[in-house]
Amino acid sequence: MIPVSEALDHLFALARPLEVEDVPLREAGGRVLARPLAALRDQPPFAASAMDGYGVTEAAPGLAFRVIGEAAAGRAFPGRVGPGEAVRIFTGAPVPEGVKTVVIQEDVDRDGDRITITDRLGDGDNIRPYGNDFRAGMTVEAPRLLGPQDIALLAAMNIDRVPVTRRPRVALISTGDELVMPGETPGPDQIIASNTFGLYVLLQQLGAEPRLLPIARDNEASLRTIFGMVGDADLVVTIGGASVGDHDLVARVAEGMGLERAFHKVAMRPGKPLMSGRLAEAMMVGLPGNPVSAMVCGHVFLAPVIRTMLGLAAAPAARETLRLAAAIGANGPREHYMRARITSEGVAVFDRQDSALLSVLGAADVLAVRPPNDPARQAGAEIDVIRL
Ligand SMILES: Nc1nc2c(c(=O)[nH]1)N[C@H]1C(S)=C(S)[C@@H](COP(=O)(O)OP(=O)(O)OC[C@H]3O[C@@H](n4cnc5c(N)ncnc54)[C@H](O)[C@@H]3O)O[C@H]1N2
Ligand code: MOO
Question: With contact defined as beta carbons under 8 Å apart, do 126 and 104 qualify?
């Protein structure tokens, strides 16, 4: 058994960053920017009014002006504004030549084409200077996971196609005679393939392209057949059959098909029988079958692997340090990822930690991480958590 950190090092060495593809801007959300992008223009491309009001050469309570025209967003006032003159102006409009300040309309009395500034004058000139948001050439750096705000910025920079890292293709193989798909009618000794679907969605959320392969049965021929269907997957993930039982055949069959194994068994709870290696062009990760073990390994190992393939920094799942809501007992020799919930009192670790309990995992919002041989802890003690 190797420690979690060593397993992650092996996984990072196996995970290859994928190639770059260009996508239309609106499809770039949730993708990883692969190369820096530079703004193609200045923003705003003219000094712009920040308010609805009147553009004037100077402003003070009591000053009066004659309104000589209008400037709206997308329709500039063509002339120059001189002393005693005002231009009706709207938010986003180019500020005409000569205008030094925009007086908001709430601070003005209007009578026909005459305005008089009242004594309620606010601060500032209400003018956004030319290029004060960004200038042409300003860059958005890569790698970067693009969110809605980034897309808005890239659009303003007039970028319509975005170089992103290709989505990793992940083949998901469930194994076991006992499994049927959700919606099917299980026999009396069968259960529903559940973590398969949890992992599918996790992978999707990570920016991968998961593919569900048919369930492999607990015999070598069936496993070989399904392994033969992984096609051009970058990552092959098996679920179950990873342990030491007579029907746990994944390692043997994968090795028969050329798996160069990097490790098998990690000193963690749950997730001990994890394995990984290289299988022809793909990377393979064999997850334990227990539903919580598979999902925990998804967060602890698959998520960092997918991020690495997407070109993001090879780093373990992010942790935060919080405080325990109640005392917990000593930990054993394996790093323990305990299902827990954040409450107003702190991190409440659930009593029931069996790795088959999806209902408990469903009620959890964090994994509380206990180092190997961590002594008993009192309420209020610090504890690291990984958000689910
Ligand atoms: N003698 C030992 N027995 C076990 C050990 C051990 O070290 N020595 N390790 C235990 C640990 S830890 C785990 S975790 C499990 C993992 O076993 P496998 O990876 O071989 O998984 P299976 O035996 O195939 O299944 C375990 C459990 O999970 C259910 N399962 C499997 N796939 C799915 C799925 N896609 N969706 C829902 N449920 C699934 C399966 O029916 C079993 O109940 O081994 C321990 N045993
Ligand atoms: O991964 Mo196993 O759950 O440690 O029960």
Answer: yes
